[in-house]
Design a protein that fits this description.
Length: about 220
């Protein structure tokens, strides 16, 4: 049976759809950062230097923060699928779908963290599952993306950025846990909230950079 060749119009439609879907990697992170910045500034007695972002997910107007957390997570998952479909001429089918699963993990972590908040009854799930997926999976995911892209000259530089992002995430996450852990030399300075924000922005920045690049390409990766 002869394989059906996509028409020029269907290809164009696909390119446009892929282009706009790539912006999910930009919109989600930007909205999330703006949300936790504004909500932190508006909550009386809250310190963005000392307190975690997820502290905004309990108490007054907690639903607003949790909505943005879940929304960001869902949009990162959409981007993971878009990235996979857009890289069809760059990566093998197995590598594409493997990358989709990997890139969706931080988004899944955000969704879990937004649903299972810091409330006492869900605190363990929030940190052990949600936060772990968000903060730890990029340490593995980003370097693996580099391994997948390094063989393509067009994407070698972008792969190198993924590797650097993975190393930076490892260093920052290690430092963040050190700051948050009671009894460590830096714990008394109480700037764990600031460190968490630095880590979050660094991780989210990867999605923003790749999302914007795919948007600029117009969904025509490798074509």
């Amino acid at each position: 049976m002869q394989e059906k060749i996509p028409s020029a119009s269907s290809k164009q439609s696909w390119h446009q759809a892929a282009r706009w879907l790539a912006l999910s990697g930009v919109v989600g992170p930007v909205a999330f950062v703006v949300a936790f910045t504004l909500l932190g500034a508006l909550r009386p007695g809250y310190s963005a230097i000392r307190q975690a972002v997820s502290d905004l997910g309990v108490g007054s107007n907690a639903w607003v923060m949790n909505t943005f957390i879940v929304l960001d997570g869902l949009l990162l998952i959409v981007f993971a699928i878009c990235f996979t479909l857009s890289m069809r001429t760059v990566l093998s089918q197995g590598s594409r779908w493997f990358s989709a699963v990997l890139l969706a993990l931080p988004g899944l972590g955000l969704v879990i963290a937004g649903v299972f908040t810091e409330a006492p009854e869900t605190l363990t799930i929030h940190w052990m599952v949600g936060a772990s997926l968000l903060f730890i999976s990029p340490v593995i995911v980003f370097p693996l993306i580099w391994l997948m892209l390094r063989h393509d000259a067009r994407w070698r530089g972008w792969g190198l950025y993924a590797l650097i992002a993975g190393i930076a995430t490892l260093v920052l996450v290690t430092f963040m846990f050190w700051v948050f852990t009671p009894g460590t030399p830096l714990a008394s300075l109480q700037f764990g909230g600031l460190m968490e924000r630095v880590v979050m922005i660094e991780i989210e920045a990867w999605y923003v950079v790749f999302g914007w690049h795919l948007f600029v390409l117009g969904g025509k990766v490798g074509s």
